[in-house]
Amino acid sequence: MARVTQRTLTIYLVDKALADAQTIVRAGSEHHKVVVNGRRMGDLFVKVGHPHPPPWVSFFSGAVDNLASVQGTSTSAVLLVQTGGRNFAIAFGFGRALLHPGVTDDRFGLKVTLNAVDPAQIRSVDRETLDSPAPHSQIQARVAANISEFGLNVDQDLLRAVTGIPRDQTLGKRLTGKDALRTTGPFTLDTIPGLLRRYLAESQKTEYRRKFPWLDHIQEVRNAVLRESLDGIVQEKLRQGEFDRMWLAVPERIEWQNVDGFSYRSRENAAQHPDIHLRTFVDGLRDPATITIEAIKSRHRVYARSDNGDAIYEWPVYHCLYAEIEHNGKQYLLNNSTWYQVDTAFRDRIENSFRRIPRATCALPNAEEDEIERQYNRRVAESNGAYALMDRNLIRYPDPRNPIEFCDLYSADQEIIHIKPYAGSSTLSHLFAQGVTSGTLFAHDAGFRRAVNEKLPATHRLLHPQQPLAPKAYSVVYAIISGSLHPLTIPFFSKVTLNGAARTLRGIGYSVQITKIGIDA
Fold first, then answer.
1. Closest Cα partner for 303 from 338, 268, 256?
2. 483 phi and psi, to 5 degrees?
């Protein structure tokens, strides 16, 4: 009996608006009609690369003779098949590069896989954790497992790809779904059209929403055409000076004590600002009505400067831009140069939770203009004996190699106050997570409480740090320094992190509050 050859196929679903091969496949490849059993089944486009030596040949340069004849070529191919009223593109080799950008449907493969696989037969998960220092990770199971065993945070993790075993093995021995569907099985050309129709039917099912209801909360926008449309909306808003739901923020964690101000020009004598704002950036342009997205991606930059004028950090303005946009009835947000689509119901839930977090009643004064966080914390503690300075007073427990900052200010009213200047979502999310770490240890670890007590002045020390703590007597306060004249608002992803942090801290027993510290002009 002849052995059946196993084939691995990488399948894309083409946008339903595209029907002509020229709008799907780039020019410059050979076109071949594919005929099976006397009927035209599809169109194959092939591009053969130029011969070139493999990269490893240079490793032996001067040590081995006659390696110049060793040449390699890369061949790319894509098979277009129309069936079930849709076009499919099956890529071979580097065939994905033959497709025009933005011509395929996002998450086609992911939906097929999640609908077709047994939820208890997942082999690996690729996820992106929003605002994480190491956002991308792949989790592989030693044996097939339920997706609930992969430790996903349903509010903060984007599911990028899933590999699992389908219930119906005629769909493939194994399915991996992302934008494309990757499947392996004993496939032949004459079975392809029927197989594609079955995959299309799987992608159109909504069963995955019952099994994975959180999947549609947040999706990265990978369609290049849609991203261009969203960028175009932002560009028009910038030209018109319509800054509602748009602002600039420092996009990463920085050492604020080293920053004296910000500028939008590279020269040392450029106008300097205590913070970055869309208004100050646009007002400094020669002609704001001609600003382009390309310019804020490549030419216009934000510089963070030290007290001697040196630029110690710099970013493209686009990387600092945060925007929330409604387009064609859907909600999108731009964060750290990436566009996301946000489910409306999920957005409303997060916004409502954020509004329900109490605003702090502690009497923190405004920051002074040009005052950095460290100076502010010290001034408040020195001018008001109710506050103990804990900023940079690191607790080297439980792991001396990874010290923990208990808080920035600790009040006589048992308020554990964490303070940061307003910044992008990753910085604020780190602040909220920091509060969870210190609050958890303070509540549950007597050794940590003793270490904290040693750092506190006598007026603020716990009487019996070794005894169990009553968290209900304490408040965790997040205070954000901002020169904005509007009520405190923070990026959406930071609201997600804050809501999760508040839920954890309230579960321990703390009250959780947030407040804005203004800046005196």
1. 268
2. -90, 0
Record the pTM.
Answer: 0.74
* 261-263: strand order across its sheet: 261-263, 301-305, 311-316
Q: Buried (b) or exposed (e) across 24-61, using 16+ Cβ within 10 A?
A: bbeeebeeeeeeeeeeebbbbbbbeeeeeeeeeeeeee
Tell me how far apart the alpha carbons of residues 445 and 449 are, in angstroms, rounded to a whole number.
7
Virtual CA dihedral for 155, 160, 166, 171, nearest 10 degrees? Answer: 140
**Alpha helix (H) residue ranges in 72-168:** 108-116
Question: Mean pLDDT per 10-residue run, the chain (521 residues)?
Answer: 77 89 91 93 88 79 76 83 96 89 88 90 79 58 64 72 91 93 93 96 89 81 90 96 89 83 90 89 93 95 89 92 92 90 91 94 88 93 96 92 95 96 83 95 96 96 95 97 86 90 96 94 72
Rounded Cα–Cα distance for residues 191 and 452 (Å) = 69
C-alpha gyration radius of the chain: 28
Distance (Å, whole) CA 210 – CA 163: 19
